[in-house]
Design goal:
This protein is α+β, with helices and mostly antiparallel strands. It has ten helices and ten strands. The N and C termini lie far apart (51 Å).
Length: 284
């Protein structure tokens, strides 16, 4: 069994090689936010687009906790996490890398006949193919295939074999190959708000109320470090229940929520399904 000291030692070695690292708890999940950072009460970093926690010394904000700083890795505040750690992870985008996560034998066979050879790492059920270069992360870009790069983390399972190749266009193009039938249909005011109220009666016509609601929803999705599917659905449900019936929720607002969800790795299909299911649950 891997010991905490072994994981920390490996983390220091990766950090020295300019690979941002973070510990994972049981279930291959990042450690959750502390109470002071829940719902980004700490302020966090704007949209969590760059690695690094806020001023909190604990391991908060999921993938964004990944660090290169040996002082942080060996700090007293991180020692509890190392003692509880079940595995080590890294932020591929922070290292200038993209991981094509192949989750089963069928996906591996597809990669071997489709993708340029590169460094590969064996996983429990498949392989990680690692390329030089970054791109947005996304889940389910095709059956059994996830992309882990910016704003994401990948479990570290060893150095792997082979030479790292440049990120090919065939991998970048996977984000554009979602089935047309499940691409999100822009949510019009009529579709989202069948019971629209008159402008003079609607509190959302004051910009701060609706803007604050959308911003909080974006933050809730961005801050989630586990159960992403459920978090996205619950957030969509909350937004629709509060803002979806008066006619003030626009395509721009919906696009902001979809963008936040896709930045966490949700596919277009998952976003669309979550939005549709939330509207159905509310009878909209």
């Amino acid at each position: 069994m891997t010991q905490p000291t072994d994981i920390r030692r490996e983390a220091l070695q990766l950090a020295a090689a300019r690979v941002p690292v973070l510990p994972l708890r049981e279930g291959k999940l990042p450690f959750g936010n502390c109470p002071a950072c829940t719902d980004l009460a700490c302020g966090g970093r704007p949209n969590m687009k760059t690695p690094g926690p806020c001023s909190c010394p604990l391991i908060c904000h999921g993938w964004a906790a990944a660090t290169l700083d040996p002082r942080v890795i060996t700090s007293p505040a991180w020692q509890t996490a190392w003692r509880q750690a079940a595995a080590l992870a890294y932020h591929p985008g922070g290292a200038g890398l993209t991981v094509v996560d192949l989750d089963n034998a069928t996906a591996v066979a597809w990669a071997r006949t489709t993708l340029p050879t590169t460094r590969t790492v064996a996983t429990t059920r498949g392989e990680h193919w690692i390329y030089q270069g970054t791109m947005p992360s996304a889940n389910d870009v095709r059956p059994g295939v996830d992309i882990k790069s910016t704003m994401s983390y990948a479990r570290y399972l060893g150095p792997g074999t082979g030479t790292i190749s440049a990120l090919p266009e065939v991998v970048r193009a996977l984000l554009d190959k979602q089935p047309a039938a499940v691409r999100p249909t822009p949510c019009t005011v009529t579709a989202c708000a069948p019971a629209a109220a008159s402008p003079g009666q609607c509190p959302h016509r004051t910009p701060t109320y609706l803007e604050r609601g959308i911003t909080m929803a974006e933050q809730r999705i961005t801050e989630a470090s586990s159960t992403i599917h459920a978090t996205v659905y619950r957030t969509f449900l909350a937004v629709l229940s509060t803002h979806g019936r008066c006619g003030c929720l626009t395509d721009t607002h919906v696009a902001r929520l979809f963008t936040a969800a896709q930045a966490k790795g949700e596919s277009v299909r998952h976003c669309t399904d979550a939005w549709t299911n939330a509207r159905t649950a509310l009878g909209m």
